[in-house]
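Weekly structure sync, notes
Attendees: PL (lead), two postdocs, one rotation student
Agenda item 3: pending single-chain targets
PL asked that the sequence for the first pending target be pasted directly into the notes so everyone works from the same version. It is reproduced below exactly as submitted, 194 residues in total.
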Amino acid sequence: MLIVYGFTRVAVVVRRWFEISPEAVMEHGARVELRLLTPQEHRGSESAAQPTVVDEAFWRADLFTRLDRPADSWSAAHFHPYFDGDEPSDRVWSTELTADPWGWLAAQLDDVGALLEGAGRDRALAADDVDEIRAAVPQIVAAARTFSPEERMSRDEDFRLTRDAAERVRRMIALIPDGVEVDREYLRPWVEQP
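Predicted structure, written out during the meeting:
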């Protein structure tokens, strides 16, 4: 499930996420990603449905914990301050993020222009959106909290919200070296999803 807040040029995508590392460490929680809306040429009449293309990620926050740690430990919470094309930068760890993830997220979203600039993009891309996003921050953070790792979910509930990412989870599983112990039963829904 994706919740997308679309503005003039910037979109905020909020979702539940699940992943597994090559060391077989499982993480889950809320993912908040900033992307650009790609302008599209008008098609059809003045009343025709128009395409909305949410592309070009430029910033991501992963408010995660590890499944083998307490839910409120934020043991895997990190962010990616920029993307190189489609690929996120390395993880950045922050004591401010783990101390108060929701306050930290609200503070980050308070100036999307600065996040664009930090990602090497022109902050002017968000000129028409900064105030609207700032006004929507409480709603965006509330939506992200519904996917929080603090809200313990069963494996099947986690899968229900992340089944669209099953192929990516299978790609992650393929990176686990032989000999590393993996909880195959926990991963079964993602493995079996067509």
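Discussion points:
- The radius of gyration is 18 Å.
- DSSP finds seven helices and seven strands in the chain.
Action: rotation student to compare against the earlier draft before next sync.
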